[in-house]
């Protein structure tokens, strides 16, 4: 009996030593260039997204009010939900990198599309906002999948938490830039256009 207990202790000790030596568990090389670029890409994307927190100013310029804003954003949210239904399958089939790039391209197109809209009651503004919401859902899903695949499974939550802080950095910078743009002198409509221009530029930097 004592012989069996001794052997069991030896087996447990050896197995724990093997677990401790699994590649990537305690490796400092987890945070590499790919994760750094993913961090910066998310910062610039969230700058673009948080700049458009002032979307109500765009609706007001077109002659709309809170009622129009609610319908536009609400209907577009259904597009984001619908995108989620196929997003996971697309990431599994094509990989998170391709879905991420395609979604960012869609986001940029949606932002630029808003510059040509001149009516709050037409279908165009609903389509542009829906494309933006769907693309945004695609970028977030692909981004999280990408960084999850870069880390050992024992450190996925850690990496998501650390790299995910990039979103807070972007959301701190974006509204600050927006407030600065609207604080400048000039026609109100031009400030709204500048908001979309800067959002398109930062989203393009995220893509690059």
Q: Mean pLDDT, rounded to whole units?
A: 85
Radius of gyration: 23 Å
Please, what is the oligomeric state?
single chain
Shape: globular
- Biggest sheet details: none
**Number of DSSP E strands:** 0
The H/E string reads HHHHHHHH
Q: Can you tell me about this structure?
A:
The longest helix has 29 residues, at 66-94. The chain is 81% helix and 0% strand. The protein has helices spanning 2-20, 33-51, 55-61, 66-94, 96-114, 123-150, 156-183, 188-207. With 208 residues, the protein is an all-alpha fold. The chain contains 8 helices and no strands.
Q: Notable features of this structure?
A:
mainly alpha; disordered N terminus; 208 residues; globular; 8 helices
Q: Summary?
A:
This protein has 208 residues and is mainly α.
Question: What's the helix and strand layout?
Answer:
Layout: H1 2-20, H2 33-51, H3 55-61, H4 66-94, H5 96-114, H6 123-150, H7 156-183, H8 188-207
Helix pairs in contact: 2-6, 2-7, 2-8, 4-5, 4-6, 5-6, 5-8, 6-7
């Amino acid at each position: 009996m004592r012989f069996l207990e001794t052997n069991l202790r030896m087996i447990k000790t050896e197995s724990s030593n093997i677990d401790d030596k699994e590649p990537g568990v305690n490796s400092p090389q987890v945070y590499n260039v790919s994760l750094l670029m993913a961090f910066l890409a998310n910062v610039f994307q969230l700058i673009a997204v948080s700049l458009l927190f002032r979307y109500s100013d765009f609706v007001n310029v077109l002659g709309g009010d809170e009622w129009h804003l609610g319908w536009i954003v609400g209907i577009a949210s259904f597009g984001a939900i619908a995108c989620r239904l196929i997003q996971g399958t697309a990431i599994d089939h094509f990989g998170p990198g391709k879905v991420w790039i395609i979604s960012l391209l869609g986001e940029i197109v949606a932002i630029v599309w808003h510059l040509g809209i001149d009516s709050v009651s037409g279908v165009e503004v609903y389509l542009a906002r829906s494309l933006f919401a769907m693309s945004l859902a695609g970028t977030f899903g692909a981004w999280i999948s990408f960084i999850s695949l870069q880390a050992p499974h024992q450190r996925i939550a850690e990496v998501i938490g650390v790299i995910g802080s990039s979103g807070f950095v972007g959301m701190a910078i974006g509204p600050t830039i927006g407030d600065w743009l609207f604080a400048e002198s000039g026609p109100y409509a031009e400030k709204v256009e500048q908001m979309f221009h800067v959002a398109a530029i930062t989203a393009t930097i995220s893509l690059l």
